[in-house]
Amino acid sequence: MLENKTKVKFICQNCGYQSLRWLGRCPGCNQWNTLLEEMVRLQKTPERTGVKPQRIRDIESEIEERKTSGIKEFNRILGGGVVPGSLILIGGEPGIGKSTLLLQICSNFSTKFGKVLYISGEESLKQLKMRAKRLNITDSSELFLLAENNFEQIKSQIEKLSPSLVVVDSIQIAYTPLLSASPGSISQVKEVTTELMCLAKRLNIPICIVGHVTKEGSLAGPKVLEHIVDTVLYFEGGKHHSYRILRTVKNRFGATNEIGVFEMTPGGLQEVPNPSQLFLEEHSGNKVGSIVVICLEGSRPLLIELQTLVAPTSFGFPRRTAEGFDYQRLLLLIAVLEKKAGFHIHSEDVFVNIAGGVKVEEPAVDLGVILALASGFKNVPISSALAVFGEVGLTGEVRGVSQARARVKEALRLGFKKIILPKANFSPELSKPGIEFLPVSTVNEAIEIVFK
Questions:
Q1: β-bridge mates for residue 82, sequence order
Q2: Which residues, at least 6 apart from 311, have a Cβ–Cβ distance to it below 8 Å?
């Protein structure tokens, strides 16, 4: 049994690694100068009686109805709505729209389910009222605002009000006076998040918390938070674009990697029901180095424009740059294009960009990258009526991907007349009048079809 006392530890503010002495370099994440001295409180371990394991067949399970947020895109990425008692973490760059979206959700919740508590540790009540006025939600009588950092006060107000939804903005500002560590430290963030999780389960109230991101783009104290919460959502898309992408990274109650697309307007974030059409708004005419690829984000097929530029290098070492696409994957595809298709681009600068600021990790866009690079190298445009998908292997083969029928359906809905796809994914059932399907098994076949 532990005694009630404090102990000095050095804790990495990047990954949470703990050490009894100071280290210049963290052994956990290999980052320099991230270990800070903190006072850790050791508590007595309470004795629990009457807790026994139960047979799984004896446990009664209840299917609890999800609460809809009033925003279809947000409901969809959560798996159909907000689960009561869940702890949801939303991260993103400053100014990308985290607080705006949550305030809109709070307004919808208060109208449909009653009392909602929005807790802000960074803005005053007057500043929150100004934002709410801009979003036209000042007339809600069930939306309560609280400017507080002390978790003990926050916990007391939640228990007194018993709201249908709680928002904490942000978790890095909240602190508990039971710890001597400063707000925003790993110890404080972990302790407050754990307490919020217990509070959400005990009161059966969904709680949304906002998390800041580091300069590398990851959530501050990411692994500590991601293991505690039920759902992790990340905002993508730069502040220079008018639309935002909310991606599900973790979800205990639904599928992961789902995305919701929103557009930032003067009146707040508006959902985009047809994101493929949005991403292809400026794709018109035959262009060199540009092609439309069909990717799958979660369960949603998405058509995006992939752009490449191949130009002679001005230096001794050619540059390779990728925006929205994995850099290591790009190097692999360049090697396949040179070795298996005979394109000598080793002395060329190569730039790849996913138009609109979308980040794509799915290998089904490989074939599109290969064809766009070939177009840029040969300086031959690709037909704007063509869409493509397929994974490329190291031997130059085009491999099949999942959900081919859904991808084809989305392309047909947007009016594409030609589709290049893996031969493994083609079946006569896909054939429709006026549509030309071009199944391929190697990258050479695809290149020959496009540039014949």
A1: 67
A2: 348, 349
